[in-house]
Amino acid sequence: MAIVSPRMHLSKWLVLMISIISMISNGRARARIPVSNEVTGFEKPKGTVKTIESHESGEVIDCVDINKQPAFDHPLRKNHTIQTNPSSNRKANEAGHVRGAVSQVWWKYGKCPKGTVPIRRVQNGTTRHVKRWTSRLKRLNLSENESDDDGGEHRYAVGTMSGGKYLGAQAYLNLWKPEVVDDEFSLAQIWVIAGPREELNTVEAGWMGDGYKTGCYNTECRGFVQKSDQFALGAALEEFSTYSGSQYELLIALVKNPYTGSWWLQIEDMSIGYWENDVFTHLNGYADRIEFGGEVSRKQKGPIPTSTQMGSGHLPSEGFAKAAYFRSIKFFDDGLNIRDPENLIKVVDKAECYDVKREYDVTYEAHFYYGGPGLSAQCASY
C-alpha cells in the first residue's frame, strides 16, 4: 500500500507554551505561536518599556512593566499584589551527555530590564480567541457518532497517575523539532488535573511544534501572572535534539504554593509565574491526576492518520537519541515532598502510530520514551 503524505510544515523553531483549562469558561486557552520572518506590522502592548527584535526568528519581544502586563486587565487582578518567588525544587542536570536548552533566540539581541516581563508581541492579522476544546479524559468517552468540541481529532501517548492528593509534578522534557502538517500541532507537556470530567480544571506546560495561526497567547490567557524578566513564554527556543546526535532538554515543573494556593510554573532554576487560585473550581485544592507525554492534533477526522509527528517522529522502541523521552519524572505529594511515581500507567490511542515505553535506571530515574511518525507503513489507518 502506497503512503501519500500531505504537505508538511517543518517547524524551524520550538516554542515553549503554557495552558490553562478551567470549565468556568468551558474551554481552553492555549498558545498558538505563528513564526514569521517579518518584524513589522505588530501592535505594541501598553506598558512597553523596551522592544527587542529578533531578526533570526522573526519575533518581536516587548519588555512590559510588570504591573501593566495583560493579567492585570482582568477585574480579579485589580490591586493585585505580585507574589514572591517560591523556593526552588530544581535538581542539577545530572545526565552529562544531554544539554539543557534554556536559551531563547531573542536573547542574542538584548535583555529586558528589571521590573519588566518579556512578552512576545502579537502579530497583526493573528486571530486572538480561545479555541474550544474537549479534555482528553472526556474525549476518550466519546462514541463514534460524537464529535470533539473543536471538530478535530487528537492522539495521545502519555503516562498518567491518579488516586492521590498532588501538589505538583516535574520532569525533564527532551526537545525535538517534529514535522507538522499545516494547521496541526504536536506538543509534549505536563498536565496537572483536578475535577470530574464535566468540570475539569488543568494547568499545562511544555513545548510545541505548531502550524496553527490562531489562539490565545500565554500572558493574555486568564489567570496567569508572569514574574520572570528573562523568559518569554511562547518565544522560540534555540536548541533541539537531532537523531543519533546531540540531545537537549528542559526541566519543567508545575508546583502549588500551599500558602497562597497559586500554581507556579518553573523552568530549570527560573520561577516564570503563577496561576492565581481564584480562577479554578477544583485546582484551588489538590490535583487528583497528573499526566506526562505527547499530543498530536489534526484539523479534521478521517480513517487515514495524519503525517504530523510526535516527539522525534520515531517510535519509543528505538531508544535514546532516536526517540523522545521524559526523564526524572517526579510528583509532589500532599506534604510537598518530591517523590518517584509508583503507578504511572501507559495510555495510548494507537501504538502503531504513537507509543510509550516506560523504563527505570539510576541515571534517568523514572522515565519513558514516547512518540512516533504518524502516517507510515506501520500506521496506515486508524
UniProtKB/TrEMBL annotation:
<keyword id="KW-0732">Signal</keyword>
<dbReference type="InterPro" id="IPR025521">
    <property type="entry name" value="Neprosin_propep"/>
</dbReference>
<feature type="signal peptide">
    <location>
        <begin position="1"/>
        <end position="31"/>
    </location>
</feature>
<dbReference type="Pfam" id="PF14365">
    <property type="entry name" value="Neprosin_AP"/>
</dbReference>
<dbReference type="InterPro" id="IPR053168">
    <property type="entry name" value="Glutamic_endopeptidase"/>
</dbReference>
<protein>
    <recommendedName>
        <fullName>Neprosin PEP catalytic domain-containing protein</fullName>
    </recommendedName>
</protein>
<feature type="domain" description="Neprosin PEP catalytic">
    <location>
        <begin position="148"/>
        <end position="380"/>
    </location>
</feature>
<dbReference type="Pfam" id="PF03080">
    <property type="entry name" value="Neprosin"/>
</dbReference>
<dbReference type="InterPro" id="IPR004314">
    <property type="entry name" value="Neprosin"/>
</dbReference>
